[in-house]
Design a protein that fits this description.
The protein has 381 residues and is an alpha/beta fold. The protein has helices spanning 32-40, 63-75, 86-97, 112-120, 140-154, 176-185, 205-208, 217-220, 237-240, 262-277, 280-298, 320-328, 333-340, 363-380, and strands spanning 19-20, 79-83, 103-107, 124-128, 160-164, 190-193, 212-216, 228-232, 303-305, 314-318, 343-344, 353-357. It contains 14 helices and twelve strands.
């Protein structure tokens, strides 16, 4: 055999996780119950043992109850489905609600996957302008301008509007209710991408004015991925959840089935803890921790970009003091120093700009992080 099998088998995850600040991971850290579910349900299509042809109809384990009762209530939508990620949820909406060549308006802070989903659906994209540095804000007025520009150039309204809430760069929470109002005044369906909101903070699609919502299980709902959630209003559910004419149990946009096995079962296992942490009183403590951390970081000479005072755990910092050191030492010095202190989350080589998340870390460990950055500065200056 020519394949070198020595590379495979058990592979240790060689990253420190005593303190994890990675925005992609803080909301996806498994609960103890989910780790048990991962072991129990990790074999292939394990839940398919119980499937009669449609994933969301499985009664035992309680996927049916979760998808048709608990999840719509949690999302604040009329109907809900499991997807293979937030991007798959966004694409399902775009592909079902729009025709090739239609225009979609989305915020200038949108995640790349939103643009790729629109491109895959063969749509034209109009980005809503964001304000200059350091805030990078998305405002209702700019949404209105973008819509008017599309109408002026094409003679009709965009087929869909989308807002990233919060955005994955700066953690900014735009005025979603006002944007929804403006969008709906023009008769445009409205999609809210809550990949960094659903499962982290209080969220209700109807209260926000969303016709559709997308979320990420592996980013924000303490589930192993990839897995996402899709919420749909009753008005548009027949289009988005249309079933196959040849395979009556299969929904077209979901390609029949989505997350089956460990992904859905870890989501179910973590759901009680996720439900609890999104209560307003818990989220307020997270916001207070984020603001405290930001103020402490800025006292070291770093600059937080985006909303101030900040309203989310995800933050973007400019670290010129560390960048200057990297020019004299090497670009990986900060990553090495943090790794030696079992602090994970800033990608190797980043010093000038980086994102972190304080979700679930707690004030005590955040203090350890601040002290670590102080030590590193003192060491190299």
């Amino acid at each position: 055999m020519s394949i070198n099998l020595d590379k495979y088998g058990f592979i240790k995850r060689d990253t420190p996780r005593d303190i994890n600040l990675d925005p992609l991971q803080t909301g996806g850290i498994l609960t103890p119950e989910a780790r048990q579910a991962l072991q129990e349900w990790g074999d292939g299509y394990s839940v398919c043992d119980y499937c009669g042809g449609s994933l969301d109809q499985i009664k035992t384990p309680p996927i049916f109850d979760f998808v048709h009762k608990a999840l719509p209530e949690f999302l604040g939508t009329d109907q809900a489905r499991i997807t293979n990620g937030a991007r798959e949820a966004k694409f399902a909406v775009m592909h079902s609600m729009c025709k090739e060549g239609d225009w979609i308006v989305m915020d200038g802070n949108a995640h790349y996957s939103s643009l790729v989903a629109a491109q895959r659906a063969r749509l034209n994209i109009k980005l809503v302008a964001k304000s200059p540095a350091p805030e990078y804000l998305i405002t209702p007025e700019k949404y209105l301008e973008a819509i008017e520009e599309v109408k002026h150039s094409t003679g009709k309204s965009p087929a869909l509007a989308m807002l990233t809430y919060p955005d994955g760069n700066y953690g900014n929470l735009a005025n979603v209710k006002e944007i929804s109002k403006l969008v709906h005044e023009d008769g445009i369906p409205f999609l809210v991408n809550g990949a960094y909101a659903i499962g982290r903070m209080p969220f209700n699609g109807k209260e926000l004015g969303a016709d559709f919502v997308s979320g990420s299980g592996h980013k924000s709902m303490a589930a192993s991925g990839p897995i996402g959630v899709l919420g749909v209003s009753e008005q548009y559910a027949p289009r988005v959840l249309e079933k196959s004419k040849t395979h009556k149990a299969k929904e077209l946009e979901l390609l029949g089935c989505t997350a089956r096995g460990a992904t859905i079962m870890t989501m179910l296992a973590s759901f009680p803890a996720v439900y609890e942490r999104t209560k307003p009183e818990h989220w307020q403590r997270e916001v207070e921790d984020a603001r405290w951390f930001s103020s402490q970081f800025e006292s070291l000479g770093l600059t937080q970009l985006g909303d101030k005072p900040h309203n989310h755990d995800l933050m973007f910092f400019e670290g010129m003091r560390f960048y200057d050191i990297s020019q004299k030492i090497d670009r990986y010095f900060l990553y090495r120093e943090l790794k030696a202190r079992s602090i994970h989350g800033i990608k190797p080589g980043l010093t000038k700009n980086f994102k972190i998340s304080t979700l679930g870390v707690g004030r005590e460990k955040l203090g350890v992080v601040i002290d670590a950055f102080k030590e590193i500065l003192n060491k190299y200056q």
